[in-house]
Design a protein that fits this description.
- The protein is an all-alpha fold.
- It has one domain.
- Helix content is about 85%, strand content about 0%.
- The protein has three helices and no strands.
- Helix 1 packs across helix 2 and helix 2 packs antiparallel against helix 3.
- The longest helix has 30 residues.
- The model has no long low-confidence stretch (mean pLDDT about 95).
């Protein structure tokens, strides 16, 4: 996710606990969704869709934090 921000992500994961929690939660949802879609973990289509929406919301929030940190860094 966001390879162009790899270094900034690494820095924020160390320096910002909130960012780190969001990033970890996003990754947990990603793995859970993959397990459900593969049939490894049972789930309804609606459950998977709900988790995908949560994951997308987290991704949006992470992106906004990255853009803000990038702007502050260049200011």
């Amino acid at each position: 996710m966001f390879p162009e921000y790899r270094d900034l992500i690494h820095t924020l994961k160390i320096e910002d606990a909130h960012f780190s929690r969001l990033f970890e939660k996003h990754n947990e949802l990603d793995h859970q969704i993959k397990r459900m879609e593969s049939g490894e973990e049972p789930a309804s289509h609606e459950t998977i869709e709900t988790l995908k929406k949560q994951k997308l919301h987290l991704k949006d929030e992470i992106y906004l934090m990255l853009k803000k940190a990038e702007a502050e860094k260049s200011a």
